[in-house]
Amino acid sequence: MTSTLTISHLTKAFGGVKALSDVSLSVAPGERVALLGHNGAGKSTLMKVILGLIAADGGEISVCGAAPGNAQARAHVAYLPENAAFHSALTGLEQITYYMRLRNEDISGALPLLDRVGLAHAANRRIGTYSKGMRQRVGLAQALIGHPSLLVLDEPTSGLDPVSRRDFYELLDGLAADGAAILLSSHALTEVEARTDRLLILSGGRLVAKGTLPELRREAALPVSMQIHAHETHEAEIMAALPAAVRMNNAIHLTCGQDEKLTTLAQISALQGKVADLDVIPPSLEDIYSHFSRRDGQ
Ligand SMILES: Nc1ncnc2c1ncn2[C@@H]1O[C@H](COP(=O)(O)OP(=O)(O)OP(=O)(O)O)[C@@H](O)[C@H]1O
């Protein structure tokens, strides 16, 4: 499938600071891709280059088949900044109507658009009275004008409560199902783990990891933790059979490499009857993220 966004060997420096170094990635129609990275990793710079707000120093970039920032690309790309600012004296409906006029869209679509982001009930209230979550929805409604093929969202859920976050991702799921490509930056790892298809990790301007969570998990090859609960009288026997095990918080803990997982499980299975319960705890996205970021010296 032709990608909506294709970036090859992108570089960008500000004076002596290399904000992006040799970054290559693509986002396909219907894909939800999360862009992760520490503060200063280069996420905003990458977004600004995609939007055509700043020019890259080198590399190639295709946005919906066009150069970033040209009329064709702009017609197909939507952007939601982290802190979208609106005129506080306008109502939600007035603000969206105004943006639709600017884009030569039929303004009768303004109310349905606000309805789509769950704001129809507040359409005639001033934005100054909206909560942060409601303002973020106005931002999303603004981004959806003109059925964009690519959505670039800068930390779209920061400051939203858990229910608003869930609603927001449900909306994104619907857009992706309709074929929109979505690139969103976030510091909320658990949330992107559950709600996106692929992860990109930027560190010091370089793309240090890209793939699905299982792919990154395999590549990182981090140790697996196991927690064993012994039947009352058998704890000592289990500890003796598993020399690497330690006792912590009323349970027996064991850590092993990915390649030793099956052997270790076989050892535990051999203790059947003595083991009351077993939990296998894979490395979390936080562990994986730290692994790739640290590997890059961040
Ligand atoms: N206009 C600029 N002039 C000089 N340096 C800049 C400029 N814009 C970004 N930088 C530098 O480029 C690097 C990448 O910054 P960028 O804003 O892209 O990071 P980020 O990943 O978006 O960070 P955050 O999570 O804090 O938003 C940083 O070292 C930053 O200081």
What would your notes on this structure say?
By secondary structure, this protein is of the alpha/beta class. The chain folds into 2 domains: 5-218, P-loop containing nucleotide triphosphate hydrolases (Rossmann fold, 3-Layer(aba) Sandwich); 223-282, Alpha-Beta Plaits, CATH 3.30.70. It is 35% helix and 27% strand. It has 11 helices and 13 strands. It has helices at residues 43-51, 71-76, 92-102, 110-116, 132-144, 162-177, 189-195, 213-220, 235-241, 261-269, 285-295, and strands spanning 5-14, 17-27, 32-36, 58-63, 77-80, 150-154, 181-185, 198-203, 206-211, 224-230, 246-248, 251-256, 275-281. It has a 6-stranded mixed sheet with strand order 5-6-7-3-8-9, sandwiched between helices. It has a 4-stranded antiparallel sheet with strand order 11-12-10-13. A 3-stranded antiparallel sheet has the order 2-1-4, with helices on one face. A hairpin with a 2-residue loop joins strand 8 (198-203) and strand 9 (206-211). It is elongated. It starts with a strand and ends with a helix. The relative contact order is 0.14. Adenosine-5'-triphosphate binds next to strand 2 and helix 1.
